[in-house]
Amino acid sequence: MDFTKNVISQTTSTNLNTSIKAFKSLIESDPKLYKLTTEMFTQTRPGDPTIPSNLATFIIQLNSLVRSAPVFSTQRWASSPLTMFIEPYIRTPSGYEFFLNAKVNNAFHDILKDWGKFLRSPESAAVLTSEPNGWFSPDALANMRDFEKTFVCDPRKPHWGFTSWEEFFNRELRKGARPIAEPDNPGVVSAAVDGVTYKFATNIKAKDEYWLKNQPYSLEDMLDGDPIAGQFVGGTVLQVYLEPTGYHRWHAPVSGVVVRTLEIPGIFCPAQRDNTSLDDWVSESQGYAVHTATRHLIFIETEDKVLVCCLFAGILERGSCETTMLPGDNVKKGQELGMFHFGGSTHCLIFGPQVRVNWNHMEDMKVGQEISRISLGKSGGVSE
């Protein structure tokens, strides 16, 4: 797929969005940022005509991107256009430093808000068609199996009944589409998201070097220094990532009471740059993201007094999270907890050291499926 042809419309428009104008002015008025962008363009793949090699072209294409909705592609990450667009730059030394800059992060926060407004507009539904690269094309429907049977939609209506790309992205499940495993059994944990297992780790430390290649978990960083992290030291983490084409609402993995919620603002660029392929770059950034990206945490206490931490984190454009539960709310296993906006993301379940976790070793999971059994034990740990 030609990314710049199909994902970013080619335009020479100088009518820039307000947030893009501010971003351009920031770069041009800050000598350090201007130097980093100049170096960034020279450090990207030389001779590749699909990659903007100067600030003017970069700004025009970024402006075009935030005025368009993602199209479907059989290439895994091409349906995440902002990821595809900035990936060549983040993987350069100067680009990585540039996108980690606090001023740049603030500017991109405003850019993402502009893009979010467009994705909620009727105009964004233009990609919800059966045409090539449309979200209801034969290739797309083959990728999103049983779409009509699984999600609330109406193929007889324009855009299958969705009024915007955001509404399609946050589509709702049909009743009964995701049966809940043993809903009245507090010892059974069900999947909170549709996703793919990234890692299952035990004996998690309070503080660790999460940026290293093997990506150990560091609870104090994941929970932003909140004292509640101490209750999970020595415990267990299951991490799952969501595909861009998948289902993006969150559901309670257990029944109980929401005892606490946390919203932690993160950086726009929670991605490591020392990988050789786009798949590796995105996938291996999962562990890094749960320490640095925007993340929402929901703590649920079960009737057996087991405290479960549900962490939901955004990566790049998948950085917008929305929690729909409040402390004190009673939740039933499988009940909706919130959602991601703009795209897929990553999710962790965290258990304390007193909880024995019998993990089912699933590679792929759907909301409501049994993923583990838990019980309280004097020493905690994992049962294989």
UniProtKB/TrEMBL annotation:
GO terms for molecular function: phosphatidylserine decarboxylase activity. It comes from the Eukaryota. Pfam families: PS_Dcarbxylase, PSDC. GO terms for cellular component: mitochondrion. Residues 19-144 form the L-tryptophan decarboxylase PsiD-like domain. InterPro entries: PS_Dcarbxylase, PsiD-like. GO terms for biological process: phosphatidylethanolamine biosynthetic process. This is L-tryptophan decarboxylase PsiD-like domain-containing protein. It comes from Aspergillus tubingensis. The lineage of its organism: Eukaryota, Fungi, Dikarya, Ascomycota, Pezizomycotina.
